[in-house]
Specification:
Blueprint: E1 2-8, H1 14-25, E2 28-31, H2 32-41, H3 45-55, H4 62-74, E3 81-85, H5 91-100, E4 105-110, H6 113-121, E5 123-126, E6 132-134, E7 153-154, H7 162-185, E8 189-193, H8 198-209, H9 217-227
Parallel strand pairs: 1-3, 1-4, 2-3, 4-8
Antiparallel strand pairs: 5-6, 5-7
Helix pairs in contact: 1-8, 2-3
This protein binds adenosine monophosphate (AMP).
Length: about 230
C-alpha cells in the first residue's frame, strides 16, 4: 500500500505526473479540483456552492474540502494506495490530513515562477471546439487557428493576465510553504525539478521514492511484440 501527496504550483505537471505514477502502480488518483469541477459541470448542490469561488481562483472552504477528501477515502477502492493531488493546500488541511491518514511521501514539483509564467501564458483554448493547446509544445499549423476546426484560439479564462497570475503565485507560496514545512519536519518531502520533460521528471520521482523505474506504454508494447 502506497500513499502519496503531490504538490506543485499551477502548470508544474501535477496531473500528468500523478497519472503516470497511478497507471502502473495501480494507485487511485484523487484530484480535489477534478471532484469539484465534476460537481460544477453536473450542477450538483455542491457545484452551485463552489462555482463562484472556483471561478475567482480562490480556495474553497476547509470544512467542505476536508469532507470531500474524507468521503473519497472512505470508498475503499484503493487496495494498492492513492496519490492525492491539490490537497492539502494550507496548514489546517495538512493537520487534518496527518491526523487522519499516514502517508509514505510527499512529491513536491518545483518550478520557478518565471517558468510557470512562460507555461501558463502559452496556454490556448479553441473557442470553437474546446481543444487545448500549449504553444510551447505544439503550435497550430496556422498561427491563432485551431488545427481541428479552424476556430480562433483564445486564452483560457482562468489564465487571464500577468497581474492575476502574479497574485495567484504569491498566494500559492504564502499558503503552501507552511504545508511543505509541516511535511518536511516529518521527512516526507522529495523535491523534484519540474522543468525537464515529463518522462524524465517521472523517472526522478521514482528514483527518489525508491519505486520501480517508469516504463512508457510504448516500451511495454515493444517488449510484448519481442516476446510474442
Ligand atoms: P486545482 O485543479 O487543484 O487547481 O483546483 C481548482 C480549484 O478548486 C481551486 O482554484 C480551488 O478553488 C478549488 N480547490 C482545489 N483543491 C482545493 C483545496 N485543497 N482547498 C480549497 N480549495 C481547493
Amino acid at each position: 500500500m502506497r500513499k502519496y501527496v503531490i504538490m506543485g504550483v499551477q502548470g508544474s505537471g501535477k496531473g500528468t505526473q500523478s497519472a503516470m505514477l497511478a497507471a502502473d502502480l495501480d494507485l487511485v488518483h484523487i484530484s480535489v479540483g477534478d471532484i469539484l469541477r465534476w460537481n460544477v459541470q453536473h450542477h450538483t448542490k455542491l457545484g452551485a456552492h463552489v462555482r463562484r469561488t472556483m471561478a475567482a481562483g480562490e480556495l474553497v472552504g476547509d470544512d467542505l474540502v476536508e469532507g470531500i477528501v474524507r468521503d473519497r477515502l472512505t470508498q475503499h477502492d484503493w487496495n494498492y494506495g492513492f496519490i492525492i493531488d491539490g490537497f492539502p493546500r494550507n496548514e489546517r488541511q495538512a493537520e487534518f490530513f496527518l491526523e487522519s491518514y499516514d502517508i509514505d511521501g510527499v512529491i513536491h514539483l518545483d518550478l520557478p515562477d518565471s517558468e510557470v509564467r512562460r507555461r501558463v501564458m502559452a496556454r490556448r483554448l479553441c473557442s470553437g471546439c474546446g481543444v487545448d493547446y500549449n504553444l510551447l509544445a505544439s503550435s497550430p499549423e496556422v498561427p491563432g487557428k485551431c488545427d481541428v476546426c479552424g476556430g480562433e484560439l483564445v486564452t483560457r479564462e482562468d489564465d487571464t493576465t500577468e497581474e492575476a497570475l502574479a497574485v495567484r503565485l504569491r498566494e500559492y507560496h504564502q499558503k503552501t510553504n507552511p504545508v511543505l514545512d509541516i511535511f518536511r519536519r516529518k521527512e516526507y518531502v522529495v523535491t523534484v525539478d519540474a522543468r525537464p520533460e515529463p518522462e524524465q521528471v517521472q523517472q526522478e520521482i521514482r528514483t527518489r521514492l525508491g519505486l520501480p523505474p517508469y516504463r512508457p506504454a510504448s516500451q511495454d508494447h515493444t517488449a510484448r511484440q519481442a516476446a510474442g
